[in-house]
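Exercise 7. Given the encoded structure of a 336-residue chain, write a plausible sequence.
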């Protein structure tokens, strides 16, 4: 399994592969300088080929769900691959996750990175139009991993790209993340039905289990009685990011492991962030003999909202010829 490596002056190391543009490891120090790999994954390419959980992968054309695998665009009904019960999830059976990306590494001005490119032809998973996507991974000496997404299409088509790494800041093999403290800068979230499709509402988090505007241990959040938590087998919901000021990149979330001090902050241009706390992970053999079970890691997926092509009240995800899809997310690794 050929890997590409990004490393900064403090030893923060990010490794990824061409298959799915998948991040296979992120090594960061704790408050004592001890390094650990903090993302879930596999030792072999075969592991990623067989993976059902999107460990570390780029996701597209459409991250999250499209209800019943259907949407209407400019009066025409399109049917995309159904791969999550009756619904379409994360781009379909292959999507952007089970395909090889072209990789062009670079180094410049204290940054290391790579440009990843993939072309999805018209009809791929049922989507209209040929979509040419570019994703740039850039690691700097301030502990920031920036992910810049860009795409163009020759026909109108929905686009919603994200990165699907699962974090366990105590170490990928350290057990569950229930003692991690989570902050989400969102005063609203999108509640779901039993199929995890948004109802179309934007609900106030005040007085609910989803009020994470101040840091809360995940153990406490998941122990609350909330119908939405039951539907999601824990947290598996989209939060509407509060934007303060006029900066393009807004603070969206912070995850902290109090034992190690390792912390990751998420900043993004996207209007939403899907928080998936791993409540439906089943025991799976991971890297270096680790076994990942329920709550072994948490994904913080910046995005537009689920099912937006069928939800006129949500921000549009339609990319048209002559337009450029552009999105930026920064994962900032700290000791706190």
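Solution.
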């Amino acid at each position: 399994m050929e890997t590409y490596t990004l490393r900064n002056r403090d030893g923060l190391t990010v490794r990824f592969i061409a298959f799915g543009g998948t991040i296979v490891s992120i090594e960061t120090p704790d408050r004592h300088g001890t390094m650990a790999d903090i993302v879930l994954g596999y030792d072999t390419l075969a592991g990623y080929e067989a993976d059902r959980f999107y460990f570390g992968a780029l996701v597209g054309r459409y991250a999250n769900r499209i209800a019943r695998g259907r949407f209407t665009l400019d009066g025409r009904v399109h049917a995309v691959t159904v791969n999550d019960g009756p619904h379409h999830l994360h781009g379909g059976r292959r999507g952007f996750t089970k395909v090889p990306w072209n990789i062009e590494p670079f180094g410049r001005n204290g940054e290391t990175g790579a440009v990843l490119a993939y072309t999805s032809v018209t009809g791929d998973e049922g989507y209209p139009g040929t979509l040419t996507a570019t994703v740039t991974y850039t690691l700097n000496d301030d502990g920031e991993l920036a992910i810049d997404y860009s795409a163009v299409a020759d026909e109108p088509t929905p686009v919603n790209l994200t990165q699907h790494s699962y974090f366990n800041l105590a170490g990928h093999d350290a057990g569950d993340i229930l003692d991690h403290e989570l902050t989400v800068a969102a005063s609203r979230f999108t509640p779901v039905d039993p199929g995890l499709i948004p109802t179309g509402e934007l609900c106030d988090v005040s007085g609910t289990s989803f009020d994470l505007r101040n840091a809360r241990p995940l153990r406490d959040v998941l122990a609350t009685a909330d119908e939405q938590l039951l539907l999601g087998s824990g947290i598996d919901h989209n939060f509407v990011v509060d934007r303060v000021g006029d900066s393009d990149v807004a603070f969206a979330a912070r995850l902290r492991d109090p034992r190690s001090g390792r912390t990751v902050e998420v900043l993004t241009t996207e209007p939403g962030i899907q928080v998936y706390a791993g409540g439906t992970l089943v025991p799976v053999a991971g890297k270096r003999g680790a076994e990942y079970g329920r709550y072994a890691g948490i994904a913080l997926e910046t995005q537009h909202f689920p099912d937006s092509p069928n939800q006129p009240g949500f921000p549009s995800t339609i990319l048209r010829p002559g337009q450029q899809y552009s999105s930026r997310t920064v994962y900032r690794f700290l000791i706190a």
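Remark. The helical segments are 45-50, 218-222, 227-231. Students should compare their own answers with the one above.
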